[in-house]
Amino acid sequence: MNESDVRERLATVQDPDLGDDIVSLGLVNDIDIEAEANVVRISLALGAPFSPHESAIAGDVRDALAD
């Protein structure tokens, strides 16, 4: 999986507070891929600190990146 693949999958994750996907909203700050370890780390800029939907978005990100 490369960065383009990750962004494509993340584009399916919606921010319910802002009403669009996290890629289009510019909420994806950084993507770090360790292919050998099968690990992807994502840095997100969510709309508000302690966003009530933060856990749901994190779960959706995990689901989108699962094989």
UniProtKB/TrEMBL annotation:
Residues 3-66 form the MIP18 family-like domain. InterPro entries: FSCA_dom_sf, MIP18-like. It comes from the Archaea. Gene3D superfamilies: Fe-S cluster assembly (FSCA). This is Iron-sulfur cluster assembly protein. It comes from Halorubrum pallidum.
